[in-house]
Amino acid sequence: MESPLPKACPRCGEPRILAPECPRCGVLYAKAQVRAPRPALQAPPAPEPALEPGEPARLASTLRWDGELEDARLELRMYQFALPVALVLAWMLVHTSAGGPLVRIFLSMWLHELGHATSAWLCGFPSLPGAWVTWTWETRSDVVFLMVATSLGALVLRGWLNQRRSLMLLGATGLVLQFVGTVLLSPLKAQQLITFGGDAGCLVLGGLLMATLYASRDSALRQGGLHWGLLFIGATSFMDVFSGWWAARRDFARIAFGQNEGVGLSDPSKLVDVHGWTETELVRRYVWLGLACLAALAVLYAVGLHRARAGLRALEQPRAE
Hints:
Layout: H1 55-62, H2 66-94, H3 99-122, E1 127-129, E2 134-136, H4 142-161, H5 165-184, H6 187-211, H7 226-247, E3 259-260, E4 264-265, H8 267-274, H9 279-320
Antiparallel strand pairs: 1-2, 3-4
Helix pairs in contact: 2-7, 2-9, 3-6, 3-7, 4-5, 6-7, 6-8, 6-9, 7-9
């Protein structure tokens, strides 16, 4: 039977003797530790073969960060489903016994009153929106006209400096509407527009809130998921008003004629009893305005979907080559 002890000194390799220490290096056998063998030297890497023409671009495309491609796919899915699903869910919500009143109290009512105030500002009248009522002065104000014109002009300038066509278009459209409201409309016609601007403003402002879905990625409207909240507010408020006027096409009893407590005549009663509109004209104008907003959203939907698909194809094409 062989001895389990090593036959050589674990430090210097000298043949071991029957003694506690090595006669050559003096190390104690009992305390000596066998050193780990040194790793073999690695051979230098072989030189990489020369790249053929066009090869660097192909390699770069294969090393591209996959997150960019995933973002493009996610954005395409968002453009495909977000707006239609939001409108369908909003329609279902406003037709429930609990959802309809909640939407009206916390969302659409505020856009309704803001619609009155916005119409008044564009027509040069001071106005202050509140809960269930908007206080509007009976005479125009030059101060309001200058404030609104300056704000819209600043919006156009900012869009031009930042090369944001959407801001330029929004500001220019506002200036045109202000010119019509303050120069072309008489005070009586302006008062009709302000009254009409309650539900009309809810439709238009609701459409604009839904349109924030198509803002650019670096926009503040897309930071932190803000556009999802605006989409919900816009879709529910729009559908709350539009579904009511759509149903009123066949049933005039759905129109909110009468008195509002502490305010006076409701908007439909003012337009019919004071300004002489017929019920048919009243319903038709709200319905056509709502359809125009939906048509504008349909155009945005098609354009956004086309751009998202084009961007995704541009990212996938180099990988397929």
